[in-house]
Amino acid sequence: NLASLVPNPAHPSVWRLKQLVKKRTTPQRVVERARIVLGSAEGRSGSAVSAEVDVSRPTVTQWLDRSGSV
């Protein structure tokens, strides 16, 4: 559950998201969403995450709102 994500690299949700990003069989849209949440959890600004993941700023805001990470 992404809503329980906290900015702690040892947190199980962070570990799970990192595993999803690494797996070659994870759908690209899931990888993109996981990278958005991880970037935010690591303290990067929305604009920085947007540039890093190569998505629009509103997309970052949308997924952070949905994940409860804002």
Q: Per DSSP, what share of the residues sits in E-state strands of 2 or more residues?
A: under 5%
Order of helices and strands: HHHH
Mean pLDDT: 84
Q: What share of residues is helical?
A: 55-70%
Gap between N and C termini: 14 Å
Residue runs with pLDDT of under 50 for 5 or more positions: 1-6
Oligomer state of the chains in this structure: single chain
Radius of gyration, rounded?
11 Å
**Structural class per helix/strand content?**
mainly alpha
Q: Tell how many strands the DSSP assignment holds.
A: 0
- Net shape: globular
Major beta sheet, specifics?
none
Put simply, the count of helices is: 4
Characterise this structure.
The protein has 70 residues and is mainly α. The protein is built from 4 helices and no strands. Helix 2 (28-41) runs antiparallel to helix 3 and helix 3 crosses helix 4. The longest helix is centred in the middle third of the chain and has 14 residues, at 28-41. It is globular and about 25 Å long. The relative contact order is 0.19.
Task: Annotate the secondary structure layout.
Layout: H1 12-22, H2 28-41, H3 46-53, H4 57-67
Helix pairs in contact: 1-2, 2-3, 2-4, 3-4
Short description:
The chain is an all-alpha fold and 70 residues long. 63% of the residues lie in helices and 0% in strands.
Task: Spell out the key features of this protein.
63% helix; disordered N terminus
